[in-house]
Amino acid sequence: CSSSTTPITATMFPGDGIGPEIAESVKQVFTTAGVPINWEEHYVSTEIDPRTQSFLTWESLESVRRNKVGLKGPMATPIGKGHRSLNLTLRKELNLYANVRPCYSLPGYKTRYDDVNLITIRENTEGEYSGLEHQVVRGVVESLKIITRQASLRVAEYAFHYAKTHGRERVSAIHKANIMQKTDGLFLKCCREVAEKYPEITYEEVVIDNCCMMLVKNPALFDVLVMPNLYGDIISDLCAGLVGGLGLTPSCNIGEDGVALAEAVHGSAPDIAGKNLANPTALLLSGVMMLRHLKLNEQAEQIHSAIINTIAEGKYRTADLGGTSTTTEFTKAICDHL
Ligand code: ATP
Ligand code: MG
Questions:
Q1: What's the ipTM?
Q2: CA proximity to 220, closest of 117, 102, 121
Q3: pTM for the whole thing?
Q4: Mind listing the GO molecular function terms for this protein (predicted)?
């Protein structure tokens, strides 16, 4: 089932911990499916690159800027002073302003709900993650939450555009504007402004605590959710839990100039790294999101079905899904389904 189109070059960061094992799985599945992609692999360096002040080299960032598309494994930032977090460096340097996390029930893998089908869209550049923390006096510290009109409009615009182009009917802005009147208030104001341009999409505002309760009671109430940085971090993990855990949930970071960097939601899972136990599904599904972004829809659907069918069949599942298969056995089963 190989394609005759000229290959597309995409950046691949295998990353740390279980990263190289699950990246290997993606490469195998993509090769078996005949996906026309050449991977440009970049590893996290062991030394700080003074040009990025981080363990990510300038060349690796340039690779994403040039290719405009990439797949990233989890990266664990080494502890110590004088360098920036790897994930923050990527977000800032590549202007990855929105993090899109689809969350849907996998047919054949039973959880409490079988009708979850929602998308969380997280503002990725500011809010509580501005890194502006300091001590005022001994025993009193301060952390600045930054919300700007520009970043809020940008992520709201992305959310409504996504809803419209993906046949979604509703956008819910998640907030705590009753307490954070200025910051979350501005975020909501921007969402409302954008909502007016999309009369065909229903717009609603939901306070975050109520949102958590509703998600746990009846996740089918939601369609597309858009929210500031920290709320997005928490809500998307909650949503991952609804459909079977971190081993299953993909995401894609959207940047300016059309950059798309897909990545699994989970971290480097140091507890199981190097043991051939990791579930590669989250990174594989992130790869599927990347393929859809590249309009390689046929291969995307083919790989997606092979993953779903393998999990549904139940014969080969990794330990996090209650099975006994290794990463390589599960990967081979997917390839056999292609
Ligand atoms: P990091 O600091 O990089 O986020 P972490 O210690 O928080 O690492 P996570 O990667 O966030 O670890 O994982 C949390 C838990 O979920 C761990 O017990 C890990 O083993 C498990 N887990 C995460 N990803 C996977 C996966 N792909 N397959 C199986 N288990 C996973
Ligand atoms: Mg973690």
A1: 0.94
A2: 117
A3: 0.92
A4: isocitrate dehydrogenase (NAD+) activity; magnesium ion binding; NAD binding
